[in-house]
Records
---
Amino acid sequence: MTPSTPRESALCGLRARKKQRTRDALIRAALELFTAQGYEATTVDEIAAAVDVSQRTFFRYFSNKEEVTFAVQEMVEARFLDELSHRPADEAPLTALRSSVMAAWDDIAASIEPIVPVELHMRAYQMIESTPALIAAHLRRSCDLEEEVARLIARREGLDADLDPRPRVLVGAFNGVMRAAGKAWSEGDDFTVTSIRELTRSYLDHIGPVLDDNWRAVR
Amino acid sequence: MTPSTPRESALCGLRARKKQRTRDALIRAALELFTAQGYEATTVDEIAAAVDVSQRTFFRYFSNKEEVTFAVQEMVEARFLDELSHRPADEAPLTALRSSVMAAWDDIAASIEPIVPVELHMRAYQMIESTPALIAAHLRRSCDLEEEVARLIARREGLDADLDPRPRVLVGAFNGVMRAAGKAWSEGDDFTVTSIRELTRSYLDHIGPVLDDNWRAVR
DNA sequence: AATTCATGAGTCGGTAACTGTCATTTCGCT
DNA sequence: AGCGAAATGACAGTTACCGACTCATGAATT
């Protein structure tokens, strides 16, 4: 039963490390090429060539061109989910969501810097938001995330997400606002982390008042 | 000039009518095949063959496989937008949105029956909601719609959608809830129009209360 | 240290969604 | 009847992606 050294596959073993390096290199090369030439204009062959592996190998690491594009986002999402599931139980649902998003932005550097520079990730994010095919992919991913988030919220509140629609409704609305913020950011001219973080914060702060019936009467 | 008969291209002329018929036939054939065998399992060649045209001709009518899938949805959306832009000005924004959706569902038969049976459309909708690639496409389309809707809302309220984030925030939240309802419908077992209409209504009715901070205290 | 053995990587060939081009047919109008 | 424009078909090319096979290298065992 695994006598001595090789227990963890994540870090140990020359093989595993080499694999990790190839994967990281593919991500970096892909994002670099995408942001430089555009997504559609970049072929998988090019990405593979940049890392000096065969096209077939690329597809063994990532099941499609889309997947490599979102590899980094996935790490950020993981951070968000982790934060959400550790939020104090007495926090209101919407507040917990907002705090988790803010936390994820706050230490994005720590989450992804080992793989890609934050600056490259921001450029990639902006490219995603301005490429129709990637917007679609991004939205679908958000939708999957929504599912997990709704379950977490339901758990916090002691509800069954399959019976009570409120967690889904809240998360749907939350997500809708997040997307609106992301879009606004990508159409602006300040592509910094701080910028998107503050924009997100301000959009989320509108979520309550905006549903009040009469905008003209209220301020 | 145009001296005598052929003014409108929409209905007049053997040519235009034939074109329309081909287009409709392609839509019907596509939806029929998709719902029977699945989206990915159906090739464009099959669709073209079913209508007895070449693959190239299919691509002259629809720029991609996705487009034919959403051709009918587009008519429903048009109905929704039309209704929204004719809602009384004193209606609250969220109410106007809800009423327009309900109106669109109410006369869906009139909107689409000339092209496809409502029943086929409902089956297609359910297929869309259970095919990842189409979910993505659907979401992206909703996103484009969101843009238009936000502008309409801004106009109603006398705001500039580029300066005031409230229209986008409202529409984002609204859209999020609509998607949640569509998803819940597709996962249920009643694929009727009435069913999705009522589900939508009930989800929308939660949108206010759900943002209240403490779910456990309130009822 | 030598020998298996598992796993990762390359090659080749195929499918299906598109796209450009050009010849052909089909309408619409005079 | 006949001319110009528009619709269609036939064909070739590109790219994402997948399956099957083969080869090489690091890891486990003796």
Note: Residues 31 and 93 of chain A are 35 Å apart (CA to CA).
---
Amino acid sequence: MSLKHGILGLLANGPMTGYELSNDFNTSLSFMWHAQQSQVYRELGDLEKNGYVTSTIIPQEGKPNKKQYAISDSGVQELVHWLNEYHFQDSLKVRDAFVLRIFFSARGNSDKLKSALHAYVEWNKTLLGQLDAIEQQYLPPERLQAESDALYWLISLKKGRYTFRANVEWGTETLTILEQLNHGGTQHE
Amino acid sequence: MSLKHGILGLLANGPMTGYELSNDFNTSLSFMWHAQQSQVYRELGDLEKNGYVTSTIIPQEGKPNKKQYAISDSGVQELVHWLNEYHFQDSLKVRDAFVLRIFFSARGNSDKLKSALHAYVEWNKTLLGQLDAIEQQYLPPERLQAESDALYWLISLKKGRYTFRANVEWGTETLTILEQLNHGGTQHE
DNA sequence: TGGGTCATGTAACCTGTTACATGATTAG
DNA sequence: CTAATCATGTAACAGGTTACATGACCCA
């Protein structure tokens, strides 16, 4: 239900191609909504069929033609309607295969688990660094003063920070617990 | 891919019915893996078709018959194989419609947003309380000493705590930011 | 007498994933 | 010369959601 609205939201700031949209969902937006390229193209097809967006083909030289999508009036209407629903229950439906594995890990290999946790912590630190880069690129201080969008950008970004920081803290604490176990005696596997 | 292994993991501790499995995924396990009842029944059908589980019908009086599933040898094998993969990339693919909405909220109604955030914070506090209840019910101190499973239970539970706590902190900070905005002057909508 | 729990599922639909296909240009 | 980037998509499949269907028992 929401990739649709993610696309409409982006197009509300100006026309974009499927390629550009897809890149955004895989880079600067990936900490709040991730999507596959093939999914974006399919969704754009549906949106156009339903009249929420229109498309124009832009010829290019030396590169493949672009197909640029623009939001329609009914698209804006649909976006605003969705926006004001503000329910959050769906976003709390967790599906975390990594934690699920750990839950069953008495049957697993504890060395593998430790190195996975280490990589997990490092990766979350990398993600935190990416958020800093995004902030520097899209949210210079002068923009925060001038544009009302920028504040909501910043708030969303903070959500990513809280999440990844929590992951780092949990991972680090867990590693400590597992190390103590090893030194303390009883070893599984 | 992982509901399958979640079911196998639970069945590794003893036989269960679809109804019981489904309840677990909607209550005590929901902070790490959430699943619909209909999904559990479908998955059990597939697992049985592939020989990972076997079923026995247990007649009951005054209640509908139970269909109890037990894990097979190849099921255990499949579980252990999955367990030792330990990759975490999937669990970091975010899809958070609430944050996405906020990202576009310059076009939305800020009073609605504030009350939604308030509810979000309260709900996350409720979830934290549920984790405490789960810990008290399943993880009394004596069990942590005695059973090696219990440690991994606890670690998974901590993940839920970190996550929901981060949500509370982010929501609270965001509310403060939005309040200041209102008092400071410029109002959207 | 109305709603909750116990207990099984099916069907239709929507969303997400993986893999494939094409083909020119550009940077290392 | 090889890999990445630009740019479009399709097809098949896997996984998740919503709604429906049945029926007895228990509690307020």
Note: Chain B touches chain A through 73 residues (CB under 8 Å).
